[in-house]
């Protein structure tokens, strides 16, 4: 099985081999090397940024609808090739083909379509001032740097590229070193769809390459999807050059299940909120607060359904739960499970697993102070916590530095909206969880991030306003 791309990087419309250190790509299920890439050298990062800066003005000068049509064509190509692209995504990430077929490139295509269609409708303001008047122009930022995480590599590349490009920016994208393949496909597809050379470039590498990219003098904006510690470093580096930032970071989100919730739906959502993509999702509802009246029924049904999850070969369409992205990450998750047990929580089901696999795992008898209830695990580990009343659960749900997402399950309409209004989270669900349609802005508050992806809101994060005052008469100077 091989997935070797034509070259490691994509600069100025062409595949280019990296001049830096080797970057082996392993299929998480078998550990086999499926490709060997090379990092970009410092000179290649600079070349990618120069190519982007050179290509950007002509791209920005096109009518927005024309830029939109390029994105729409790219979306159509992605949909045509979804089967092959999804297989590559599974090889790169280890996620079950059952998921990648519907959630990864498909969601990337949705973003390209959405922003492609939105472009022509973005306008400025006309501001009457009596005799004089002013107007605003929404202009591109210039060269944007995109840096991705490994859990949704192709979706992340599309979610960043679509709003950036449609607003007339150019982009240099660095995927995670764990999952470098999808972004290269996106670069090829965009060229095929008519994107001018240099407008979307891909460099590969670890943290140092990312650091070189965000400090390049051409870069006006940095959009990162990653962990909070990385976010802090990247935000600080971006501040040196007064660059714009979007930070999509980690979370420890609460999912609150009230006594009156539909049991099957709440259990199903809690599983989706913890086990999809082997739990490697930033917005996961990993603190499941269950009200005391429904607790026993909830846990009994949860255990029953979790035991039926099909774990195995990610390329088997029946598989629902695949391996963890890397042995190092699996070890980290196991250490967190061991810490939970050492602190006195009990396993309802699951456990450390073996090799590449960590099975769906549920903790009971946990407290808010335990590390499994405080720290992001980024694996298939759910911590259930019991609560008694609404005020109490809101206080406990908010008692975290994170603020990415939250969910509420109840049949009581007014309670649902009242609770959601009090939750400190950028993205909330009522009687649903982890649905992220491109029409809806997505992002975090507190330590979970700055800015929003998706929805019309993303346009503001990839453009800037120029104000133009128009004098219609003489200049009244007091000199
Ligand atoms: P990570 O923070 O280790 O790495 C993210 C990216 O940043 C990688 O491409 C990495 O090479 C790069 N990087 C690391 N140090 C850098 C530096 N100093 N300068 C520039 N670039 C640097 O994250 P990860 O382990 O790849 O992904 C998991 C994390 O991402 C989790 O915390 C998860 O919650 C978060 N995440 C957030 C979202 C969201 O939308 N909010 C989505 C997916 C993942």
From TrEMBL:
<dbReference type="InterPro" id="IPR029510">
    <property type="entry name" value="Ald_DH_CS_GLU"/>
</dbReference>
<dbReference type="Pfam" id="PF00171">
    <property type="entry name" value="Aldedh"/>
</dbReference>
<dbReference type="InterPro" id="IPR016160">
    <property type="entry name" value="Ald_DH_CS_CYS"/>
</dbReference>
<protein>
    <submittedName>
        <fullName>Betaine-aldehyde dehydrogenase</fullName>
        <ecNumber>1.2.1.8</ecNumber>
    </submittedName>
</protein>
<dbReference type="InterPro" id="IPR015590">
    <property type="entry name" value="Aldehyde_DH_dom"/>
</dbReference>
<feature type="domain" description="Aldehyde dehydrogenase">
    <location>
        <begin position="18"/>
        <end position="468"/>
    </location>
</feature>
<dbReference type="InterPro" id="IPR016163">
    <property type="entry name" value="Ald_DH_C"/>
</dbReference>
<dbReference type="InterPro" id="IPR016162">
    <property type="entry name" value="Ald_DH_N"/>
</dbReference>
<dbReference type="GO" id="GO:0008802">
    <property type="term" value="F:betaine-aldehyde dehydrogenase (NAD+) activity"/>
</dbReference>
<keyword id="KW-0560">Oxidoreductase</keyword>
<dbReference type="InterPro" id="IPR016161">
    <property type="entry name" value="Ald_DH/histidinol_DH"/>
</dbReference>
<comment type="similarity">
    <text>Belongs to the aldehyde dehydrogenase family.</text>
</comment>
<feature type="active site">
    <location>
        <position position="248"/>
    </location>
</feature>
């Amino acid at each position: 099985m091989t997935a070797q791309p034509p070259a490691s990087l994509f600069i100025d419309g062409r595949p280019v081999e990296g001049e830096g250190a080797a970057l082996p790509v392993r299929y998480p299920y078998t550990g086999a090397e499926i490709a060997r890439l090379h990092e970009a050298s410092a000179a290649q990062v600079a070349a990618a940024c120069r190519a982007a800066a050179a290509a950007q003005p002509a791209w920005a000068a096109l009518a927005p609808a024309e830029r939109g049509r390029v994105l729409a064509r790219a979306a159509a190509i992605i949909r045509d090739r979804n089967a092959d692209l999804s297989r590559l995504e599974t090889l790169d990430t280890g996620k079950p083909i059952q998921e990648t077929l519907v959630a990864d490139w498909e969601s990337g295509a949705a973003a390209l379509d959405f922003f492609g269609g939105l472009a022509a409708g973005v306008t400025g303001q006309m501001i009457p001032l009596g005799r004089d008047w002013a107007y605003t122009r929404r202009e591109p930022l210039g060269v944007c740097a995109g840096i991705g995480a490994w859990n949704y590599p192709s979706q992340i590349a599309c979610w960043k590229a679509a709003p950036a490009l449609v607003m007339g920016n150019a982009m240099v994208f660095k995927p995670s070193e764990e999952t470098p393949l999808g972004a290269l496909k996106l670069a090829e597809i965009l060229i095929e769809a008519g994107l001018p050379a240099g407008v979307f470039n891909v460099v590969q590498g670890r943290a140092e390459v990312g650091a070189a990219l965000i400090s390049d003098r051409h870069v006006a904006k940095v959009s990162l999807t990653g962990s909070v510690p990385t976010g802090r470093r990247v935000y600080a580096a971006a501040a040196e050059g007064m660059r714009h930032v979007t930070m999509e970071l980690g979370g420890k989100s609460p999912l609150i299940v009230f006594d009156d919730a539909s049991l099957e739906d709440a259990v199903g959502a809690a599983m989706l909120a913890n086990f999809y993509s082997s739990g490697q999702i930033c917005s996961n509802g990993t603190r499941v607060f269950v009200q005391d009246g429904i607790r026993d029924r909830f846990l009994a049904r949860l255990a029953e359904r979790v035991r039926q999850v099909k774990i195995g070969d990610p390329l088997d369409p029946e598989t629902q739960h695949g391996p963890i992205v890397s042995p190092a990450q699996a070890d980290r998750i196991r250490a967190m499970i061991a810490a939970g047990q050492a602190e006195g929580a009990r396993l309802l089901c699951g456990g450390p697993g073996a090799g590449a696999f960590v099975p769906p795992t549920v903790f009971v008898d946990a407290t808010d102070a335990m590390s499994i209830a405080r720290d992001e695990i980024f694996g298939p580990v759910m911590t259930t916590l019991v609560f008694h009343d609404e005020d109490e659960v809101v206080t406990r749900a908010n008692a975290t530095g994170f603020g990415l997402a939250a969910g509420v399950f109840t049949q009581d309409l007014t309670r649902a909206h009242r609770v959601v209004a009090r939750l400190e989270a950028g993205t909330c669900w009522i009687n649903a969880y982890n649905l992220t349609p491109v029409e809806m802005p997505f992002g975090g508050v507190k330590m979970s991030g700055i800015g929003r992806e998706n929805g019309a809101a993303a346009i503001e994060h990839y453009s800037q306003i120029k104000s133009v005052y128009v004098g219609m008469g003489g200049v009244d100077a007091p000199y």
